């Protein structure tokens, strides 16, 4: 049985705690947060502690906290035995310098408390400083997901960068599209079928071959018309930059 203490209270921590509760040969022995009230929607049976109190013993301590908070959190665990792992896609092992045993458990997914996630389908990218800890971390990861990959820091950082483009940036584009619809008195639901097909194509085709639109066709008349519709200078600059990037990608075919 792998004993786990989970540190954090945000979206990822919430979904991780649910996955840990349902994992075989894993026991979630405690939840830790700066503010215990932030854990109010977590399982009420699991013991909860405030960061800075005497830590519970565990085999693995998972830090599901913001990248900038990892160092401060670790100051509360100096001298504590166990494997400490962070969940960041961008940070290396040495951010856990205060721990003698260090690792990474990075879930490649976007998390919101309001949406259920099948954690078994979430790719888990792991890394450990010691081979013995890699074995332990692999066992824990396989109890949580069917997709476990051992990926070193440099490749994990590249994967995280790719994920920012695929998820964070694309979601912001959807927000801007919803805003344009709202300002025109249109329902965002009209974009739903388009979004569904966009995501379906992304799975079945390469993004390169799936690209469509005025920039892909070098339709300068439509591009200029869109720019006239945009009133904010930041919005215009963003439209231009993205359109130019698409045009450069396909300039040999235009």
What features would you highlight for this structure?
single chain, 254 residues, Rossmann fold, N-(1-d-carboxylethyl)-l-norvaline Dehydrogenase, domain 2, 2 domains, eight-stranded mixed sheet, 43% helix
Describe this structure in words.
The protein is an alpha/beta fold and 254 residues long. The protein folds into 2 domains: 2-151, NAD(P)-binding Rossmann-like Domain (Rossmann fold, 3-Layer(aba) Sandwich), CATH 3.40.50; 155-249, ProC-like, C-terminal domain (N-(1-d-carboxylethyl)-l-norvaline Dehydrogenase, domain 2). The chain has helices at residues 11-21, 70-74, 131-144, 153-183, 192-204, 207-210, 214-217, 220-229, 233-249, and strands at 2-7, 26-33, 48-50, 60-63, 83-86, 102-107, 124-128, 148-150. Helix 1 (11-21) links the parallel strand 1 (2-7) and strand 2 (26-33). The protein starts with a strand and ends in a 5-residue tail after the last helix.
List the helices and strands and how they pair.
Layout: E1 2-7, H1 11-21, E2 26-33, E3 48-50, E4 60-63, H2 70-74, E5 83-86, E6 102-107, E7 124-128, H3 131-144, E8 148-150, H4 153-183, H5 192-204, H6 207-210, H7 214-217, H8 220-229, H9 233-249
Parallel strand pairs: 1-2, 1-4, 2-3, 4-5, 5-6, 7-8
Antiparallel strand pairs: 6-7
> Strand order within the widest sheet?
3-2-1-4-5-6-7-8
At CATH level 3, the topology of the largest domain is Rossmann fold
Distance from N terminus to C terminus (CA atoms, Å) equals 60 Å
What's the number of helices?
9
Mean pLDDT over all positions: 96
Class from secondary-structure proportions: alpha/beta
Order of helices and strands: EHEEEHEEEHEHHHHHH
> What's the CATH class label of the largest domain?
Alpha Beta
Q: β content, as a range?
A: 15-25%
> What Rg do the Cα atoms give?
22 Å
What is the assigned CATH homologous superfamily of the largest domain?
Answer: NAD(P)-binding Rossmann-like Domain
Outline: elongated
Number of strands: 8
Tell me roughly what share of residues is in helical segments: 40-55%
- Going by CATH, the architecture of the largest domain would be 3-Layer(aba) Sandwich
Q: Low-confidence parts, pLDDT < 50 over ≥5 residues?
A: none
The tally of domains stands at: 2
